[in-house]
Amino acid sequence: MLKKRIVGLVVAKGGIVVQSIKFREYLPIGKPKIAFEFLNNWGIDEIIYTEIEDQDEPNYDLIKKSTSKCFVPLTVGGNISKISHIEKLMKSGVDKISINSASIYNSNLIKKSSKIFGNQCIVVSIDISNVDGKYLIYNNKQRKVIDLKLDDYVKKVCDEGAGEILINSVELDGTYKGYDIDLAKKICNLTDIPVIFAGGAKSAKDFEKIFNLTNVAAAAAGNFFHFTEHSVIKSKSYLSDKIKIRINNRVNYKENKFDDRLRLSKKDDEILDDMLFIKIDDEII
Question: What is the H or E stretch that residue 154 is in?
């Protein structure tokens, strides 16, 4: 059984990392390079970087500079509509590319890119909105749901050569209300290829829940990781004896206890005393 992955989402607008809330509000956070560096140091398994401003093509210079601090698999999405865009991204140090709206209007892009670069490099990103209990595909550029059946579209992109699917829950994006488990189950039942699920993570318990209740290959989060110190390390420490995950950082909290909100509990006074007052023998010269 493959180990589950924890994925960090980095959303950028105008070259600045932003906090995304329901695909409508975007609050500035900082530079992509710094976000990559923190996520790498904290032991993230993968990073998905998405540019949401409407441009003719990706910002290659910014991506190339940012990848200097990225030592885990990096997926880049946003403004990708041609094979030449993918070629330039690969030369910039990108491992995989994420296709969203372009896959809706240009089905040949998935077919061609998967044949040229291999389907392991092609991630199809699908934004999904829950409208009156129905799951509908949302087009972020048009700011509305579109007349396309979700079941048919998921099967279509898989047949065309997608190597993975990234699902974004629009209503739960940035809300800290937890993942949409029903939607995750639905998508996993439609395909055998790996599913990355995003939207609503508040704590490691949300990762635990989606991994236990669905067959998603990876759980992704953005705001939770950006605003919670050592969030990746603490999440993996909590999950390590519950879920089969990757442990790839020498720093951990395995010896620490967590409270009900998964905050670190205070260590025993005896342990703290030992940490603060270390006996040092007289130096012999």
Answer: helix 150-160
Q: Which of 127, 173, 180, 206 is catalytic?
A: 127
Q: 3-class secondary structure for 230-249?
A: CHHHHHHHHHCCCCCECCCC
The two structure tokens encoding residue 126: 């699908």
268 is catalytic: no
pTM: 0.88
DSSP state at residue 147: S
Closest CA relative to residue 164, chosen from 48, 35, 29, 43: 48
Q: What is the pLDDT of residue 49?
A: 96
Task: Locate the domains of the chain by residue range.
Answer: 5-276
Q: For residues 246 and 146, give the distance between their C-alpha atoms in angstroms, rounded to a whole number.
A: 37
Q: Which of 187, 1, 26 is nearest to 10 (CA)?
A: 26
Rounded to an integer, the average pLDDT of 213-229 is 89
Domain spanning 5-276 has what CATH number?
3.20.20.70
